[in-house]
Amino acid sequence: MSEFVYLYRGGRRPESPAEGEQVMQKWVAWLGDLAAKGHIKDQGQPLEDEGKVVRAKGRTITDGPYPESKDIVGGYTIVEAKDLAHAAQLAGGCPIFDHDGLVEVRPVMKM
Amino acid sequence: MEPGEHLFRRESGRIVAALSRIFGLDNLTLAEDVAQDVFCRALEVWKLRGVPENPSAWLMKAARNRAVDLLRRQRRTRHLMPELGQLFESEWTLVPTVTEALSAEAIKDDQLRMMFSCCDPNLSEDVQVALILRLLCGFTVDEIANAFLSKHAAIEKRIERGKKALAASKRLFDMADAELSARLSAVHRALYLLFNEGYHGSSGQRVVRSELCREAMRLASTLLENPLVCAPETYALCAMMWLHAARLRARVDGYGDLIPLADQDRSLWDRALIAKGEDLLERSADGAELSEYHVEAAIASIHSNAPRVEETDWTRLVWLYDMLMQIRPSPVIALNRAIAIAHLNGPESGLEAIRAIPHDDRLDQYPFFPAALAELELRAGKIDAAREHFRAAAALARNTKERRFLELRAEAAAH
């Protein structure tokens, strides 16, 4: 088994608590399923939308992680899978796709 | 635990009530925005981290942090917090004061005060009910519009009108106010209407919207917890709700169609709710005042205690309907009285009693008026007349379920 990071990018905000709750329940179900199958290494954390980008030894500091809000990383999870293809396949069930978001799957570099 | 929408609705009511005391009723929208924001954050975190063991405490803590943050930032620019005033000025007292204001005990009082604020007699009853659903039950405008088969814009306007009136008073209703007992009547009435809307469901596709009943019962039981407002009428109102609610399960069949009282499977009635309702009814028998809720609860109790429809105490029912006609005369009550008379003295007497009801526009639009005529004509053996009345009733039906119910009766009458 190798480790991979899921970076959750973009995805609309829910329009009402009721919708948000449905979305949340889908996430809990999806991650719960992955955890039950032993794929979750670290359930990760959600990230705030705000942030700063530091460049050139701190000489340029700009607001916002990205100029395009649709690309913002909203959270991450660390999973275990056979290989990159397997990890990508497991990401296919992520509820983020219902809300115009995407999952970036990146292998954790082995020492 | 499953968060479920009830958690969010309930917590929204609690957060908005507490924050309204902190920010003032003139900043109600701010309180609602904070509640909304807290939920959105909760969902973001919970979707990855899972739902915490005590989601309610989590939400309150998040609300506290947001409130403290807002108060710090707006200390100079806006005049917030009319009640807790200077306690927010100093950094020393800010956090403890907000924490205290969001404690379970304080919130209980604030919710009650909010309920009384919503029932401002200057507001029409439909505005009061809409405000209660919005502010205390956390319904969205769309959910309220859906419940009352109204347009989004109409409900929004209704709520705006209500909020404007609330803002004028700035503070939540003071339970020590001399107006308390008059307000309590308005609160009873609003909760009664809310319950009835759920129970009789004059609008919407579903006949019984038990959610509205549940919310009315939840809010009514908070009245019982406060010695200032747990009056005999409060007990009577609760008794009526519990006794009716006991029959909710038996009122609809597998297709979602309405089942009349006489045809219900009485083994489906919820015995625990009936017992609780009877207990409440007993407690309501205190003092000299006999309210319409007392009588309505007594009527519900008679039905609940009859093992079969034939064993119903119709004599007492007619007597109770007579009494109800004296307290709050209405053609609908007169109609129910006539039906009880028919059970007691036969269909001809019932028909006679119906014909004696003075007509008004409201009754002419009420599908159960021709439906009652139809049932009695049917029992009197006049099948053609019965079918005619059933058809007239179906044409007046207010929702598809009601129409289906009446059409089925019309069909059955033909055989």
Task: Describe the protein's architecture and organization.
The complex is a heterodimer of chains A (111) and B (415). Chain A has a four-stranded antiparallel beta sheet. In chain A, strands 3-4 form a two-stranded antiparallel sheet. Chain A has helices at 17-36, 84-91, and strands at 2-10, 40-46, 52-55, 60-63, 73-81, 101-107. With 111 residues, chain A is of the alpha+beta class. Chain A has two helices and six strands; from the N terminus they run βαββββαβ. In chain A, strand 3 (52-55) and strand 4 (60-63) form a beta hairpin. Chain B has 415 residues and is mostly helical. Chain B has 20 helices and no strands. Helices cover 69% and strands 0% of the residues of chain B. The termini of chain B are far apart. The A-B interface holds A 13-14, 16-18, 20-21, 23-25, 27-28, 31, 43-46, 74-75, 77 and B 3-5, 8, 12, 36, 39-40, 43-51, 138, 140, 142-143.
Summarize the amount of helix of chain B as a percent range.
55-70%
Secondary-structure element sequence of chain A? Answer: EHEEEEHE
- In which range does the helix fraction of chain A lie? 25-40%
Give the N-to-C terminal Cα separation of chain B.
52 Å
Strand order of the largest sheet of chain A: 2-5-1-6
Structural class of chain B: mainly alpha
Structural class of the helices, strands and pairings of chain A? alpha+beta
Instruction: List segments of chain B where confidence is low: pLDDT < 50 over at least 5 consecutive residues.
Output: none
SS element count, helices of chain B: 20
Proportion of residues in extended strands of chain A: 35-45%
> What's the number of helices of chain A?
2
Distance between the termini of chain A: 14 Å
Number of strands of chain B: 0
How many strand segments of chain A? 6
Multimeric status of the protein: heterodimer
**Largest sheet: number of strands, sense, barrel closure of chain B:** none
Mean pLDDT of chain A: 85
Provide the gyration radius of chain A in Å: 15 Å
